[in-house]
Amino acid sequence: MQERSGLKIVMATLLAILVASGSYVITANLNKIEDNKEKPIECMGQQILAQGVCVDPEPQPPQPEDCAADQVWRDGNCQDITAPQNLTYGAEVMQWVIGEIHTLTPSFDGDGPDSWMVSPAFPAFISLNENSGEITVTPQAEHSSTTHAIIASNSGGVSTTNLTISVINIQPMFSYPSPQWTFILGYYGELPLPIIGEMSIDNWDITPELPQGLVIDSNGRIGGTATVLGSTNHSVIATNSGGSASAEIQITVVDEAPSLWYAALGNSALTLSKGIAMQPLAATSSQGPIITCISQPQLPSGLELVSNCNIEGTATVLLNQTDFLITGSNSGGTSQYNLTLTINDQPLSNILYGVGNYTFAKQVDAVDIEPSYDDGGVALLWEIQPQLPTGISFNQSSGAITGTALDVHSTATYTIFANNTGGTGMASLTLTFVDITPSAISYASTDIIVESNQSYLQINISNLGDTVDTWQSHPTLPSGLSFASGGTIFGTADTRVPRTTYTIFANNSGGSFELQINITVHDFDTDWSMITDGVTSVDYGSSWPSLILPFGQWSFPILSDWDQRPIASAAYAGQGRVVGYGHESFVAKSSGPEMTLSINAMKWACDGVGTIGLWSDFNHFEDELVAEGFTVLTSVTPDQLAGLDCYVGEFWNGWSDAQNLKIETFLTSGHGLILGGHSWYWSYSNSDVAHNYPGNKIAPTTGLFVSSHSGSVQATLGSTPDRMLRTIPAITALQNHFTTGPLIATSDAPTIEKTISRSTAMLTLDFNNFWTPLREMVNSTGWTQISDNNEYDLGADPIDDVLLAIEEGLYLRLPANQLSAHPSSSDFPGAVPTNAPRVSLNVTVNGNYIGLPSGFGYAGARSHGMMGTGLYAAAGEVVNITVPTSIVDQNVRIQIGAHSDSLWNKDKLDRHPKVHRIWVIDSTNMQVGNTFGGLIYITFPPDSTFGMTNITIENAVQSPRYIAGVTTAQQWNNTEKNYPAPWAEIEGQFFILTVPSSEIRNLDNTAELMNWWDTALQMEHNLSGYLPWTRVERAVFDIQISAGWMHSGYPFMAHTVSVANVVNLSYMSTQGDWGMFHELGHNHQWMAATLPGNTETTCNLFSAYIMTELVGVDLGAGHGAMSNSSRETRTETYFNAGSQISQWSVWTALETHMMIQEQFGWQVYTSAFSQYYNSSLTQPTNDAQEYNSWAARISNETGMNLIPFLRAWGLPIDDATFATVDHLPVWNNDPLRGWVHDYPSILQNLSVSNITSSSSTLQWDNYDNGTDVNQTICWGLFDGATTKSAWTTCSSQGLAIVGSEQKDLTGLATSSTYYWRILGEGASGDHWSDAQSFSTN
Question: Is the dihedral of CA 1097, 1098, 1101, 1103 positive or negative?
Fold first, then answer.
C-alpha cells in the first residue's frame, strides 16, 4: 500500500508538469491497478489527481524570459521599468576655463535611461554620450552663458535637468622686462611690450594714473612725452573674463643733464672787495635746467651759491687767489666750472658809537660802549682825544669805552681814530656824567590778574636804591587802583581791563627808573553779556551735551540748564580766551539764537574779528563768519595755527600730545580757542575721562573740564550767572564757611553744593588747585558717619551734602596707602573680625567673558564681568595684587566691594552713596584698597578672551564661597562657610548670590539650593530664546539700593531682608519670589521687543513662567494682582474706559500677553523673542514700529491672526501689518469676545460671477465673523452708500460665519450697472464694505 501511494505521488507530479503547459481533462485509472472494477476519477481543468484527490498544481516560478518589453527582472520577479528621476550632473550652473578638460557623469534615481538627448544642442566643444549620458567638455574659446536641457528617458518615462554653461578665458599672466623705467622730461619714450602668456587680454588699466604725458595703449605698452618730474610706483592690471593680474613698475621722469657756464667771466678770474656787495654772477645752461649747485671747497663767508649756480653776496673775509669747482646738477646729471677767486681788504668806514650821545650816573652806571662800523677792513690801532674822565678806560685794540665815572663831568665831545693799512676812519662821541638816578626797584609780582569789584589788591614794592620823589604809570592804572607814597599799588579794581602792560616811572632829580607790570581785571558779568548778547534762550534739539565744568580760577559758565548744570563755559587761560561747548554740534549753529551765540563766542574768544581757523568739521560755518568780517581758513589742524587769531576745534579729537601742546601754547600766548565735544558717550567704552578723553588732556591749561555727565539741550538766559556756579569761588566760600567766615548764605548753599559736587565726581586728585584746599578742609571737619541707625537726610543741608561729595571724591581716588578705615565701614558693609588672619593666595579667574548684546537694555549688558576671588579687602588696608602682563592696560579692572549701587538719588541714606571702588589695572603690581572694604573681584570688559588668568593677592581676608561642581559639601560645611569675611558668595552654573556671611553660616544644602536657582535661571534663559546665555547672572543684596525693592542690571540688586527667603530652598521651591523672577526678567528683556509701556510688563512673563512651571503655584498664589478676580476686574475696567493705549501698561498689558500665552503656550513667546536676535533683521526703532513688528511676529508664531485681538486692546496696528498676516485665520474665539469687546466682521475677496443679462452671483469671504454680526446684502442701480434705506434692495444673510458666502441675484435689468455693499450689524456698530459694482450683459 505504501508502494502504491508512492507511485501515485510520482504520477501526480508528472501530470502536474504536463498540466503546467496546457489545460487537460485527465482520466486516471490508477485504481485499476488494484481493482479493475473501480471507475476512473476525472479532474477538471488544470487540476491533477494526487492521492486520489483532484488538486491544483503548484505554481511554476517566473523566469527572466517571462518579462515583457516594459519590464525588468529584479529581485526574482518581473517588475515594471521605472522612469529615471532626479537627474543631475552635480550642479545646474557650470563655468569652465579655456584649455581645461572636464567629464561630467550623470546621477539619477530609478532605472537606467536608454536614450539621452540635449536641447538646444551643445556647442561644438561639448559632446553628449547618447548611451551613457556622460558629457565631455574641451573648451578652446570663450563662451557666453547658455542653458541646455538634458533629457534621459526609458520606457518608464523621462527625467530632465538643465545645465547653464559658460567658458571664461585663462586668467592673465604677464610681466615687463624690468620693474624700473626712466623717461627724460619733454622727450618721447616708450617701454617694450609686456611679456604675455597664452591668453588674450581684454583690457589694460594702471593705478595710480601715469605721470602727465604718458599713456598705456591697448597692448599694455607705456609711452609718451612726460611733462612732470618725479618717481612714481604703479600697478599695471590686465583683465579678461578669467580674471585679472597685475605687475608693479616704477617710472622715473628726469631732466636733461645741464651745461654750466658763466658768460660774464668766460675763462677769466673773479676779484672782489671784502665788505662790498658783488655784482651777481649769473650762471647759464644751454641744455637742461640747473636744479642744485655746490662748490668745492665752500665759497668764502658772505658769498652765496644759489641753487641755479648764481653767485651773489658780500665777502666778509680776505682771500688769496683760490680755485673753486662749481658743480650744477639736476635729475639727469651734472656739469662743472672751475672758478678762480680773490678777495681784497678795504678801509673802515661809517664808525659809530651807538646813538653817539650818552648820559651816565656817576658811581652807578657802568659804561660799556663798543664801536660799530661797516663791514670792511680790520682796525689795527684805536685812539681817542681828549682824555676820558677818571674811571673810564679806552681799549686801543677794540676801541671799546668801559668803566664807571667817579665824578660828575659836564658834556664833552670825543674824537676816535681807527687805523689800518688801508687808511684811517674817524668818529665822534658825546658823554655826560650826572648824579645817581633811582634804581633797584621791583614789584613782588609783575603779572597781576584780579576780578573786578571782588577783592582788595595790594602789590608791594621793593626799592633798594635812592629815594624816589614821584611815581607815574603809563597808561594810567586801572580804575580803583592807586600808588602809595612808597610805590605800592593798592585798591579794588572796579572796571574790566584786558591784559595791559603798564610802565611805572620812579622819578628824582637824577632821572627816572622804569619797570613794567602786567595787570588784567576780569569782569565775568561783562564777558558773559558780550557772549550772550541778543540771546534769551537756546534749544539744541537732541544733541545731549556733556557738562563743561568751569573749574579754573578764571573760568565761568555761559549756558546753564534748568538744574544749573553748565553745558557751555568760557575761561581766560594765560593771555588767551577759550570757549567750550558740551557738544560739538553747538559750536557753529547756522540759524536762530544758537547762531547768534556761536558768533558772539567767536568774537569774544578772538577779541573781535580777525583771522580764524576752522577744524574740518566746522568748514560749513565759513560763510557765516565771512559775513561777520572774519578772514576764514578751513580744514585747519593744530599744526597750522601760525597767523591765526583764534581757532575752532573739537574736544573729542585725535590730536597728539605734540598737537595739544601747540594748542595750549597758542591759547596762553594770547589767542582764542573755541572747542566743542561730549565725553558721556566716549566714557561708555573708555576709562579715566580725566586723563584719556582728548579734550581733558588740555583741561589744566584751559580751566574747562568735559564731564562724562550730561545736561539738557535747552537753556534760558536771564540775568548774569550766579558767581557760585564758578568752581573756585564756590570752594573759597566753602573754605571761609568753615574757617574765617563769612558763613554761606542759605540761598547760596544749594548752588555751591551742585558746583563743587559736579567737580568732585569728575576731577582726579592731580587737579591740585581743586583738591588741595578741599583735602585740607576735610582733614579739619572729619568724616561723615552714616548707618541704618544713623540715617542721613540727603538734601536737607546742601553744605553737609557737598562735604559728603568731597569725602567720596577723596576716598574713591586716594592711593591705597593713604586710605584708612572709614568710621561707617563697621556698620556697612561690616567689620572684619579683629582676629581674622590675612592671607596671600594664588587664585585663578576666568578671563573669557562675552557679556550680552546691548539690545538687553535693562541688563547692564555691556558691563564688565565680575570674577570673584573668594577674598575680601579689610576696610582701609592695602592689598597687593600681582597680575600677568597680558591684562595690563586692557581695560581689565580690580573691583573692591560688590555693592555698586549709587544712592545719590535717595532722600535718606542708610549707608554712604558709594561704597565700592574700581582700580584700572595699569601695572603688573597693584596696590589697591577700599576705605569701606569689600569682596575682591577681577572684572573683564565684554568680549574678553584672556583665558584662565592667574592672580596673586596678598594681605586679604578669606570669605565664604561656594562654587557648584567645585566645592564639596564637606569643604563647605567644615571650612568655606566659616571664613571670617562679612560677605559671602554662593555660585551656581548660571547664578551667583552675594549675601551677608551671617545668612549662610548654617546653610548646609548649598548644592541643592543652587541647583534650584540654576534651574530657574535656565528657564528664564530658555523663555527669552537667547541661547546660550552668555554670562552668569549676579544678585547682590544690600542694606539700601538705588531704586525700588529690587532692580535689574549687572548685578541685579535686592535688599538684605530678602536674603533669608532667597537662600531657603524649602521656601523658594514652594512659595517662590515673584520679585526676584521679575527683576531677572528685566535682564532678559530685549529693548526692541519690549513694547511701549511694557517695561514692567513682559518681565512679569518670566515671573509667571517660573511661578507656574517651577514653583508649581497658580498665578493668583504667585502674585495677588494675578488672582482671577483681579484679572477680570482689571480687564473690565480697561475696556469700560475705552481701551486707551495710554493706559495699557504693567498688569493691564500683562493680561493681553497672558491671554495669548494661556491659549498658545509659552513657546510662541520664546519663538517671537528669538526673531529679534537675528542681526540680519531690521530692529524697530520707534513706538509704531515696535507695535507692528510684535503684532506680525506673535501672529506668525501662533499661526493665527492676532491683530483684531490686539487692536481690541487699543494697540495701533496699521493695515500694512494686517496684510502681512491675513493669510492666517483670525483668532475668533479669543477671551474678549462676548465678554468685554464686540468685534466687527472682516470681509475679504468680494467678487461677482455668473453674470448674465438678468442675474449674477455675489461672492465674499467672512475672514472674521465678528461678535454676533448679522449680515445684509444691499444692491441697486446706484450706490446707496452707508444708508440702508437708500438702497433699492437689501436682503438679510443672517449671522456671519467664517468662510465663503454667496448671494444669487435675479430679475436684474439688462445692460445695466449695479452697485452692492455688505452691511454688518452687531454690538460693535454698523460696518459697511466698500462699494462694489458689476454690469449685466
Answer: negative
